[in-house]
Amino acid sequence: MAEFISESVSFIGAGNIATYLAMECYRAGHQINMVWSRTPTNAKELAVKVNARWCKEINEINCDNCILIIALTDQATIDIAKNNDFGRSLVLHTAGSIPMDVFSGHSEDYGVLYPLQSISGKEMPVNSDVPLCIESNTESGLERLRRLAESISPLVYEISSENRLLLHLAAVFACNFPNYLYAIAGEIADKAGVPFEIYKPLIRETTENALSRGPLKAQTGPAVRNDRIIIKKHLDLLSFSPEYRNIYSSITRSIMDKHWLAGKKII
Amino acid sequence: MAEFISESVSFIGAGNIATYLAMECYRAGHQINMVWSRTPTNAKELAVKVNARWCKEINEINCDNCILIIALTDQATIDIAKNNDFGRSLVLHTAGSIPMDVFSGHSEDYGVLYPLQSISGKEMPVNSDVPLCIESNTESGLERLRRLAESISPLVYEISSENRLLLHLAAVFACNFPNYLYAIAGEIADKAGVPFEIYKPLIRETTENALSRGPLKAQTGPAVRNDRIIIKKHLDLLSFSPEYRNIYSSITRSIMDKHWLAGKKII
Hints:
2 copies of one chain form a homodimer.
Chain A: E1 8-12, H1 16-28, E2 31-36, H2 40-49, E3 53-55, E4 67-70, H3 74-82, E5 90-93, E6 109-115, E7 132-136, H4 139-152, E8 156-158, H5 161-191, H6 200-213, H7 215-218, H8 222-225, H9 228-237, H10 242-259, E9 260-261, E10 264-265
Parallel strand pairs in A: 1-2, 1-4, 2-3, 4-5, 5-6, 7-8
Antiparallel strand pairs in A: 6-7, 9-10
């Protein structure tokens, strides 16, 4: 890990990601300079937490040679990037799906600091290691960004815009979709008159098993057993919801194709 | 919890579920009498662990008034149930999808002891609380089964055969399918040149968030944000696999239908 150099960091945005990054930078010993948000009370709230100042107008941010982090929704990030000139600051956005070049022509040094985590509360647990994906248009910018990132997380990856988009897509499969399948499980359990809580040990065990053995090896269930009698029973039970039936079929078919070839198990 | 009464328990089968149940019964203070398996070395291995005897022929199991637990694959369970007479024992199977009545006419007291857990190794961690679903054809059988189940787990649920089938279906959504989505995420991450490990913090956080807040409230991602620009980008990226594209579409459509009605967020 590179030597620590204290940076001056300002934030455009005061939501979950801005709050997480500002708190971590502040804890690591960086100086948080200015916070702007469309909602001034949010800017003020974050500024107080990290001993910074807040401002009402975006052009009040005086960020000469500082690091400026834009942490907003995708559309707002694009709007801000395209309608401002960021002078001599290293300007970063935090979005999974916006190319770095959104800043092209608006700054000399720019880049991306994308935390690969679903940050749903305004405070992450201290010491939770969030992977940070970084990218910059210059070598010096990348070096500076890497130092900053490594000062707040041990998991820092250099990722191109193209690959960041893939990572974001994979995160939808790893996080958003499993969560929705839990919701479906809860709804079916409810039909059986039992609370979703009955699945807690199973879900925790499955997750840890996938993470330790790797999900391909850890696959269980009727599809990987090629148990067509059970699959037929399940599809019949799902007649109450064509959508759930469709989800069941599409995943089951894909598991079978992945693990079986012409009746022979291949994984 | 009911008073502890030591039972004499025998096992047909010596795989993961038989081993788990036999070890737990033994630890709880029950006497394990006999173990049979189609593979004698497996029967012997389990018998040694729980201070029991093993036998080569199924009819050597002398189980008068004992509890006999059949823990085999679905088809083997059905075959054994239909081709034997279980006399005065309380005979149980452990399958999620087989009705209790498979024993009808072959025993007076019968039932089901279904552990709602993906037991993939031969030993579960001590004190992991596995939910046990129980069912019996008589009140006295149910009482006896409940005592046994409560002696090895604090999570005991009385569940009918019909509802057990629903629970098993829900477990596929809660466990087998999320595991497969992790495998897809790993494959996409691989395309981006990063290891699956990068998702570990995200997956753990998502799982715990779903379990503590409930998955409906915890839903994040482009579908629940109704972010059609990102969804379009993701579908384009998935052109390399019609199957993954199909899974992405079916889940995304269902999330949108659940959370949005005529453009208005409803959850």
